[in-house]
């Protein structure tokens, strides 16, 4: 006898939870456009709400023409993706996109599964298994759930990376000398999208005497189709202030993986969420009929990174010295220049750590090969 619910049964079972969560999310005062005060600084009300709740939904950041460019790039990459994790060709018989990079550009998972919950993967930071509904009979055995290295596989993402308002927010939250984390695209296809079990992103600084509510930085989550309670990320507001949270206890108190104090990130296409990496967050299998495509861009405080040694998710020991941080940070400068070339009348952000080095960090076919290619081998994982 089958114990796992079908996709339809799962969606029906959590419907009331989704409705209640959306209502509570929309009542929070942490939503609106990116605004500035009379000095040109990010509005205090935005920063106060971010630090109180751990996330903020910036509305209308990306306009429709740029959204179309981002969507077209995602579809181009998916059309040229390998047909399976072991294949080198795309569905047209061509060499698949990403073959030229040292790190794979695609991650595959089983439909509606929870690949991380209750495992030792990612330093065991996903302690509780989520429900795994049974996919439809015609569902593929595996599908692409993650695009890796956005800035080298999609030029539109490199341009978004240089967005002056988003970088102004990064400077306001992490300091003018902020540094990059990594960039990936989450694909939550309807009837296929996997769960991401409840977790906190940080792994390095929990026991640091200098720990604080922003120690592990944040992610920008740009929505190019919107985000709903069914397919989106859920967060437990305020948990970024609590240190390492006992997630198992939260789930036990709720009686299921539906943590009672969590709320969903509800977004329209073009909205961008800033989410503290220390927030307890996760997402359910996407048993809805709606697609979510989220472009993640992470940033960290320099003082949390410089000369820190840790072990990454692949088990490799690494030290983030000045040279490595400088080289990885060049992607910010190149993203700024790529955006300026595409949108010449837009305000240009000045990234303070590389101010005066603009000539070395122009976006060109030369820097595509010498800086952008395989840039994510230098990603910072805290």
What do these coordinates show?
The chain has 382 residues and is α+β, with helices and mostly antiparallel strands. It has a single domain, classed as Sandwich (Jelly Rolls). The chain is 30% helix and 17% strand. The protein has helices at residues 7-27, 44-53, 64-79, 121-124, 150-153, 155-161, 164-174, 247-254, 302-305, 322-342, 365-372, and strands spanning 31-32, 55-58, 106-109, 143-148, 179-188, 196-199, 218-223, 234-236, 263-264, 272-276, 280-283, 292-300, 309-311, 317-319. The strands form three sheets. The protein has an eight-stranded mixed β-sheet. Strands 6-11-8-9 form a four-stranded antiparallel β-sheet. A two-stranded antiparallel ribbon has the order 13-14. Helix 6 (155-161) packs across helix 10. The model has no long low-confidence stretch (mean pLDDT 95).
Question: What's the end-to-end separation, in Å?
Answer: 43 Å
What's the number of extended β-strand segments? 14
What is the overall silhouette? globular
State the low-pLDDT regions, or none: none
User: What is the domain tally?
Assistant: 1
**In order across it, which strands form the biggest sheet?**
1-2-10-7-12-5-4-3
Q: Classify the fold: give the CATH topology.
A: Jelly Rolls
Which value, in Å, is the CA radius of gyration? 20 Å
Give the rounded overall mean pLDDT.
95
Determine the fraction of residues in helical runs and give it as a percent range.
25-40%
Number of helices: 11
Helix-strand makeup class: alpha+beta
Percentage beta strand: 15-25%
Q: Which architecture per CATH?
A: Sandwich
What is the N-to-C order of secondary-structure elements (H for helix, E for strand)?
A: HEHEHEHEHHHEEEEHEEEEHEEHH
- Output the CATH homologous superfamily: q2cbj1_9rhob like domain
- Biggest sheet record: 8 strands, mixed
CATH class categorisation: Mainly Beta
